[in-house]
Structures
1.
Amino acid sequence: MAMIDKTTDMENAISEIPDGASVMLGGFGVPGTPFCLIQELVRQGQKNLTIIKNDANENGMGVDRLLENGQVGKLIASHIGLNSRAVQMMNDGDIQVEFVPQGILAERIRIAGAGMMAFVTDIGMGTPLADGKTEVSVGAAIGVLEPALHADFALLHAARSDRFGNLTYAATARNFNPIMAMAATCTIVESEKVVPVGEIAPDEVHTPAPFIDHIIQLPGLPEEYNVVER
Amino acid sequence: MLNAKERLLRRAAQDIHSGMIVNLGIGLPTQVTRYLPADLPVCLHSENGIAGVGPQVSNAEADRNLIDAGGAYVSPIKGTSYFDSAVSFAIVRSGRLDLTLLGAFQVAANGDLANWMIPGFFTPGAGGAIELAQKARRVAVISTHTDKKGRPKILERCTLPLTAHNCVDRIYTDMAVIDVTPNGLEMIEIAHGIDQQDVINATEAKLDVPEGPIPTF
């Protein structure tokens, strides 16, 4: 038996994303952010996107390019404090922002990827973040219902992929990538290195290929991926 | 002689013990690592997916894929592990953190903490603060005793939106170490050269001072 080859070119893969789509972006700060896929999305110009990412990157990179280009209608994130444009656009009403505590954001994504509808938690109860949420009793305890967070597309960054879509990540570039890989209808991965099927040993795989739809070999890494000089 | 900030960091470091799993917030909390003995076996957790955070490194030595949750370039040590964000917060919510040390805008006499939002002024989102404050087995705050305008940060009740209720166990400031007890706030140590009455005056909440001499730090 052999495995199919999911490698394709970036323009084709990103062109599947329509206006109005919900798009998850891997990354926590710079590590794991798919800057090249984002740049292609900026070039193609799809509008009114719902972007789901832990943060809004910093000014001048990643999510900031989508904001600058007016492509974002809504942002779902845990923290956007390092991007002054995102904060300004939120305050001016130019984008809608939904804040989710970081681990609840991760779990809502994980749950969607696990094919579940929701979970119950006591996180945030008694704070403004619980306002408007459905309360649920579990035995003697009370929690709030947190719905699964699914997306139409996930754009991810891997250190290595085989042509079937088995992925590995490097260090803290893992972050939201493995769970977003599971939570979208169509998952598109940019990979620093694409290797023949079989070259990544079964025990080394971080994200198994059944979750992956398209693999793009990065020709090189633009400077956005480098160590940030502060 | 260490200055007040250095003594504060050193004092907070003294409560981090062998074998603990600890999460340090951004800012003052992370600086506490400077005062941990190099051979102390402690596992530092960072929300972006590390258990066993090693020392910060210069940009020249940095691995572009290895940062802590504050964005600083760090290094691995023997025993370090990496994991995804869901696993990272499973560690937090399931009570694996022995201690989290956090910054604060306000702390109340009952242990309520506000450290993520100032409506109309500072609204970046909570990041991981709510889960850390609510679920670490022990929560300590390290902060200046008053804000930049000299207003007390330790209050009878918080006026800012809460991060979590009733979560803080101990407060380290440049003036004192204060425990949150069922009977209210109790000063257990005082900074070198500070007068007890000055601490009481800089604290809006009622502050109990035990009889007799108080240890200094």
2.
Amino acid sequence: MLRRFRLEEPESVAEASELLARLGESAKVYAGGTELLLAMKEGLIQYERLINVKKLKGLSEVAALDGMIKIGALCTHHELEKSSLVQQKLPSLHKLEQNVANVRVRQSGTLGGNLCFAEPHADPGTLLMALGAKLVAEKSSGTREIAAEDFFVDAYETSLQADELLTEIRIPDPTDHSRSAYLKFGYLERPSVGVALAFNLNGGGLSEVKIAVGCAGPAPRRVPEAEALLNGKGREEAERNLAQAGAVAGKASQAITDLHGSQDYKEHIVGVLLKRAFQSAVS
Amino acid sequence: MAKAMTKLDAQVLPLSFTLNGRLQELDVEPHELLLDVVRERLGLTGAKRSCDVQVCGACTLLVDGRPVSACTTLAFEVRGRSVLTIEGLAEKDGKLHPLQEAFIEHGGFQCGFCTPGMILAAKALLDENPAPSEAELKHFMHGNICRCTGYKKIIESIMAAAKKMRSGS
């Protein structure tokens, strides 16, 4: 049962941003509603107004431009799993999107909404960190880019300002040497652990290694200490260092004991998934 | 956040959409859910409220041919769109859809609570992919939960319907 609220339907990002500035905490941006409406039905949060951003133009496209894959924040998971550009250029993201929740959530839920709600057990943020994504935040007075690893502050908390909207996700165009994988594990509806790994494999050596872990703790995070164990190494040495990198990444995941598993268990799974992600990325 | 809410006046949104092939026009408030409008205001009770969190699939309806959770879809979202419920699946003369026939023939249900959602989700799958592998079927349907059948007969039913639909009979 939802409590009564009023609906605003701005036609431009500037108008939406002005509404957010004026209405403050009494209003919330609404896109797919797959997370927001659940929390509102449960009575955990309530708003006097929802600002439906789905009428904003130009935020539902995927394009390869300026050396980047640009994904409009309103793209649904379904649109991304069906996008031939995503499939060709970003196979790890394509696979992730095919496996978000279920077919109905993928139909309604948007990538931008998923990131902005910052539910700790969400998949995309973790992979976007490893892919070196930048998130575009817009408000009436200007636009800025936020690196994916600086976007998530805590559970349900992002670095977006109150009057900013996430409008685009920018992922560097991969080269022939780019490798990446995202793997998750869980036994409830949402994953217990997600691990993303990306690197360049050139002449048998790894460079630009990025590792991110998510779902285990309050927010996804990059793990530079684990990356350092693989970066600049030959493939075989990197493979030998994987167990240590996995242990480091597990500790860094800020895993908490909850219904999804104990802290120790999740830390262990991070290591298992990192090894498998490596195998998947090089295969 | 959880601060005291001022009392809000009703906001009326005119809603016009196609329901099972017929135009529907009514007024809704922004917070009204599609499931409540269809069940309580329009009297079509095939879609069920169960988990209420988009996990179980019992409230599945097709909007422009794609499955959505009516329990978590605001009613105004279907403005100008086409909604199909289980009540609109059979032909006008009462002839059942091949999926409905197959569920009966193959015992694809026991209590029947999940069946409207199962059949509509399966329709969306077969419209998109008329010859799914069993793995593709399971992947597409994994968000529709049945607590009676163990799924084997549901899978058999959908596969049988797919075959029948492909042969055009």
